[in-house]
Write a structure and sequence with these properties.
The chain is of the alpha/beta class. It has a single domain, classed as Alpha-Beta Barrel (TIM Barrel). 45% of the residues lie in helices and 17% in strands. The chain has an 8-stranded parallel beta barrel with strand order 1-2-3-4-5-6-7-8, surrounded by 7 helices. The longest helix is centred in the middle third of the chain and has 18 residues. The protein binds SN-glycerol-1-phosphate (1GP).
Length: 243
């Protein structure tokens, strides 16, 4: 799975991942998934900050697997965010959390299930940035990195790389008023050698294009798909291709 994403990044420069939250029921999900596949989304991420029902998560992963050929990557909030049916998991540490549970505690609780179910772990450093007071910043007890301090985000990212993380995710928070600042994306992507994933608050093609041009290798959208369907996502994907 990781090798597929890396191949897609090296072929296309920047790829799109769609994020589905199992707690938010989706109208006509199978059709949405087929559309996402045909417009060029690289994989489906499944998770949300408040996921706690394993049955609900399992159902969502199964629906994705039964509806399209896109790979499924878990995006866990803690050890509750693991489904035996998924292909891979972003095995992530919330690097700027002040709570050790989100740095390593939940990971230790979840690791045996990842091994037992044979889910591919993809090590990822997760950094919450910007001014938006979102679910992830509250639940994750985060000291958000302000956009005026891109060098601090770059320091966290480099530390993540040196700890062996193979992706770094800059997160503005789901539904953030504004996406991650382009200068911060530039600073982080020019500092580290591993691919940078950017998500949170991306709603338009022009926002996605700026972030891709700033050095992001992966762009994630969730809320715009939930609220407006695949139309804007199609524009986002073609803007990424243009970038
Ligand atoms: C959230 O980065 C993702 O973890 C996606 O954010 O829902 O704002 O697209 P949006």
């Amino acid at each position: 799975m990781e090798s597929k994403i890396r191949r897609a990044i090296s072929e296309r420069g920047c790829v799109h991942l769609a994020l589905l939250d199992p707690e938010k029921p989706f109208h006509k999900l199978p059709q949405v998934l087929q559309d996402l596949e045909s417009i060029g989304t690289a994989a489906i991420m499944i998770g949300g900050s408040t996921v706690r029902s394993n049955a609900q998560l399992d159902r969502m992963v199964e629906t994705v697997k039964n509806s399209c050929r896109l790979p499924t990557i878990l995006f866990p909030n803690n050890e509750s965010g693991i489904s035996r049916h998924a292909d891979a998991i972003f095995f992530m540490s919330l690097l700027n959390s002040s709570n050790p549970r989100y740095l390593i505690g939940a990971q230790a609780m979840g690791a045996p299930a990842v091994k037992t179910f044979g889910i591919e772990p993809i090590p990822l450093g997760y950094i919450v940035v910007g001014p938006s007071n979102t679910a992830v910043s509250n639940i994750g007890e985060v000291e958000r990195v302000p956009y005026s301090k891109p060098e601090i985000a770059a320091n966290f990212a480099l530390a993540g790389q040196y700890l062996g993380m193979r992706f770094v995710y800059l997160e503005a928070g789901s539904g953030a008023r504004n996406p991650v600042d382009a200068e911060m994306v530039k600073r982080v992507s020019s500092t580290i050698d591993v691919p940078v994933i950017v998500g949170g608050g991306i709603r338009t093609g022009s926002q996605a294009e700026l972030i891709a041009r700033s050095g992001a290798s992966v762009i994630v959208t969730g809320t715009v798909l939930e609220n407006e369907g695949t139309g804007p996502v199609k524009q986002i994907i073609s803007s990424i291709k243009r970038a």
